[in-house]
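Final report, closing paragraph on structural work. Over the funding period we assembled a curated collection of sequence-structure pairs, and we close with a single example.
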Amino acid sequence: MPRDLEQEREKDDKSPPITLTESPNRMASGSPISPTTNEPLLPTPSRNFTIIPPDQQVHIGAPTNLHPYTRPLTISDLESCVALENAAFTNPDERASREKFAYRLSKCGELCLGIFCTVDSKTDFKAETLATGKPIETSRKNGAISVLLGHVVAVKTNDPLATDGSMDYPKDWDSAHPQPSTLGHQEGGRTIVIHSVAILPGFQERGLGQTLTKAYAQQMSGAGIADKLALIAHDHKTQWYEKLGFVNKGKSKAQFGGGGWFDMVK
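Its predicted structure, as stored:
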């Protein structure tokens, strides 16, 4: 289920929104990565990216710009997603399991988005996902790696709201002959159910959650693959999502993590 980013609220109200840098070739040290001789740069993602405002830069011993960027998640990001989820959710009952991540990243990774930064592998950069970071695919001599800071993980459903069924998964999904199931991702569904919105604890209160959620909503809307977004949130956490355009539909029937949720739709 979505991680609440309530503590970002005051920061978001006072500061300009964080935006995104152009590509993984910008490092958290604030300077571009230098490619080796005759080595091409990584392809630049969609150019809806700019640089983080100075007042929202992360400090790691000295002023440092994160230069965050987003990209779709794949099964290769599994361990980073698990590490992020475990760090972001203090209540184990509200965490997605490793098995659920494997299922969602394999079946519908195009519905899952991560926000990353690129750092030198020898830096003192602190993040629970540092150990699971992946080298950027241009063989940099400095060993620069891409580190996951936050993620949005989702599936599609035929239902208009988030349900326990959409938050589950068929246990035989990776077998040679899986049985038809109404659990989990429904490819023909027109509602995207967001199951996890999470930012590493050390990077909260910087507007990253707002930036990631807005980027996700814009990308899904632009792709035209669904009619709406749905999620569940606790009562004291609904206002954060309302500021991002979600509407509170009242108490949810979902009992995930013990229940007590409210349905949110955008």
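Confidence is low (pLDDT under 50) at residues 4-17, 30-63. The beta strands are 58-59, 63-64, 69-72, 113-119, 134-135, 145-157, 191-199, 228-234, 247-251, 261-265. We thank the funder for supporting this effort.
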